[in-house]
Amino acid sequence: MTEHAASQPLRYSELRQAPRQSLSEAAPLPAPLTLFVEPTNICNFRCVYCPESFDNFEERSGGLHRMDARAFDLLADQVRELGRIKSLNLYMLGEPFVNRELPEFVRIARRKDIAERITITSNGTLLKEDVSRRILAAGLDYLRVSIYGGTPESYARTTQGKIALDRVVENVARFRQWRDEMGAATFVYVKMIDSGSPEENSQFLSTFRDIGDEVTIEPAMNWNDPDEGDLSLISRQQRLDSSFFSQRKQVCPFPFYSLVVHSDLRVSVCCVDWAKEAVVGDLRARTLAEIWRGEPLREFQMMQLERRAGSHPACKNCTYLHTSPDNLDDLDPEVYRRRRAPGEPHV
Ligand code: SF4
To answer: Ligand 1 centre and the CA of 32: distance in Å?
Structure first.
């Protein structure tokens, strides 16, 4: 029996296809639609294409952190003041299950009803029975499991860790079994980044076909820093040609509808800002509402609309903006400046 009686969630891919209002007409929004909250930036893997594998990761990301449940509880109250958001994503960098208070985060978010849906992305290595049952009982909507190779050899090569692919397969299968026993509605989405090898991709799909509720190959992205890590797995052109990238665009839509709260409580505009080069506030000094309505975010948005992102350290090499289903390329910066001006609320 779960604490939370949720209805069956949509398939994860259907979320991307759901009808959306025009962001260019609606911006500025009264509250973010999506909030990423990073439970920790510590990971038990060092995947070759992830900043966690960089020698200077700790220094560049401002140290290693775990958010505690009390800080999350305060944050949840601040989200409530802004209004119920669409999507609460309990991940950014790091492996969320490294933070043992993760089930408490889900329980708090559900009890305070701050989001339409709650999602965790995990590498699946730490899905032990106790924590899995507590997460399921708390009412998680989506568990997204990232798999880093279709064969045991490539998995070990990519993760640079000691945990074998077989163990993760078993973990995910048991998670689903506990879910079914408990009557929980958590949807299990399993994904692998395109290996570039059709054989390996198809081995991944056949391994997980009967284990995940949905199983997908996703394209690689560059973590906005092509000079670091092994990003040569798939060429930039291949990444951009993938159907996952909905539309090429000049203006990044993410800072207009999402925010990221890092585990050290600094707030960035997007979930690829692992090096914290696009920080627009700090929850130790400002509330979430103050940050959402504040000048640093407005300046960042204007920089995007005025096509100056090519010289911004966080954005200049980024391809992630192309994954957004929204498009703001036709939004006149002056129109937006007036809408965002104090005393001139946009409805
Ligand atoms: S362009 Fe990339 S780094 Fe810049 S805000 Fe958008 S997603 Fe973030």
So the answer is: 16
